[in-house]
Amino acid sequence: MDILKLLSDTFLDWNAIGAVLPKMFAVGLPNTLVLAVSSGVIGTVLGMLLALMGISRNAGARWVARIYTDVLRGLPPILTILVIGLGFGPIVRQWTGSTSPYPMAIAALSLMSAAYIGEIFRSGIQSVDKGQLEATRALGFGYGPAMRLVVVPQGVRRVLPALVNQFIALIKESSLVFMLGLLASEREIFQIGKDAASTSGNLSPYVAAAVFYLVLTVPLTHFVNWIDRRLRTGRPEKKEPDEAAAVVGKGAQA
Amino acid sequence: MSEFTSGTLSAKNIHLSFGSNHVLRGIDLHVPQGTTASVIGPSGSGKSTLLRVMNRLIEPDQGDILLDGRSVLKDNPDELRRRIGMVFQQFNLFPHKTVVENVSLALRKLRKLSKEEARAEALEQLDLVGLKHKADSRPANLSGGQQQRVAIARALAMKPEVMFFDEATSALDPELVKGVLALMADLAKGGMTMVVVTHEMGFSRNVSDAVTFMDAGVVVESGPPEQVFTEPRTDRLKGFLADVL
Fold first, then answer.
1. Beta-carbon pairs below 8 A across chains A and B
2. Which chain A residue lies closest to B149 (C-alpha atoms)?
3. ipTM value for the complex
């Protein structure tokens, strides 16, 4: 039973787990949420911009969106984070005097997720029937308002599950910012676990970190499934025969 | 329906090509105010495209479009389209909005009515097409005929001077066609200027004031319905009528 004991010492050292919990709650969890939520919001806004550029009638805008998306989607996240964090960090430091890598971390995560979210939005918007745009324009709306009021909302609705999946990915990828060397107050779930693991000498703090990630991601996964089901089946409502057809049209001649 | 005060529509020598495909080859169509013009012809003859050119969803390569005697090609096309209501074969209702929101959207955003005013006016329009009781349903929960009547209400809500119908009953189950045609006939009787692209020869013959037969991008024959249907002069129209009647 040595192996079981070894495993339990490595992964389930309750003292080590208990020791890391306060810091997880006070520092790690809030920081992970700040990183994921802020880059999720910025990534969504940029992604929508990229999607609209991608379907624009302006060839230049389409090209910019295409190249951006290809590059940012084609790079490993860790490379993007390092290049942006370490490369642009000093420049930002010169401008603002801030030494925090945090804004750079958020920028890198936002730019990366924008590429994916842009493609998600674009496919959703393009899946909306062309008749929707035509009918809206026939009422007298310009292209911009027609897209904003009718086409984009329908497209976004269809890709909500994919969008939430992207947010889940973002929560996980936010762990990579540890590469930038965060200040003690800036450390997120993964880095807190990593720090504690090096003092406790076993991997139990990583288990604690894993539980924190799962508590964030698993409900989101089920939320995706729920939206997906809801979108496919819709709200139940009774369909009635065309009874009113008989009421109108006293002038029926055809 | 109330009386309509303006809306004489003319298309003059309209040409349009998609690449090497010459879809419209010099079309003339004159629709005096308060009359209904039906446009018939085989699939691919350019009928639906002609409608889209006349409200400038598609810009013509050549020719002119006159509303009340004045060319509209230099106007803002969005403003032109507010004066011309359009009803589509596939209804094209907004599935993410309720029935009443479908009708009130343009009232709120284009005619700048308040939410309450727009809803009240939209309900009034829905009442005219017999669907006020469906105001808060989603389009997906309506039958095809009901959806098309909502689409008509949506177009009428903008108080257009002219109404376009693009094969408005072609996608409907046979038993639902009658209600929609009856509504269109009521509109025509009420004095609305209408251009109706249709495969419903009964409607074309009984309701419209003039019939235009198109084939391969040209107007082959046109005239009062009695003449077009009983005394076709060209072989193409004779052949077409033999196929559809």
1. 133
2. A245
3. 0.94
- Taking residue B88's Cβ as centre, other Cβ atoms within 10 Å add up to 23
d(CA B77, CA B79): 5
Q: Is the pLDDT of residue B125 over 60?
A: yes
Q: What's the pTM? A: 0.86
The per-residue pLDDT for A23 is 94
Is the pLDDT at A65 greater than 70? The verdict is yes
Q: Cβ B183–A249 below 8 Å, yes or no?
A: yes
CB-nearest to B182 from A153, A235, A251 is: A251
The residue ranges of DSSP E strands in chain A, in sequence order, are none
List CB contacts (< 8 A) between B181 and chain A: 249, 252-254
Q: How confident is the model at residue B123 (pLDDT cuts 50, 70, 90)?
A: very high
Distance CA A61, CA A57 (A): 8
Contact check, Cβ <8 Å, A254/B182? yes
Contacts of B8 (CB under 8 A, 6+ apart): B31, B32, B33, B66, B67, B68, B69, B193
**Cα radius of gyration (chain B):** 18
Q: Can you name the residues that pair with B18 across neighbouring β-strands?
A: B21
Give the pLDDT confidence score for residue A98 in this predicted structure: 79
Beta bridge partners of B48: none
Q: In this complex, do A253 and B185 lie within 8 Å of one another by their Cβ atoms?
A: yes
Using the CB atoms, write b or e for A211-250: b if 16+ within 10 Å.
ebbeebeeeeeeebeeeeeeeeeeeeeeeeebebbeebbe
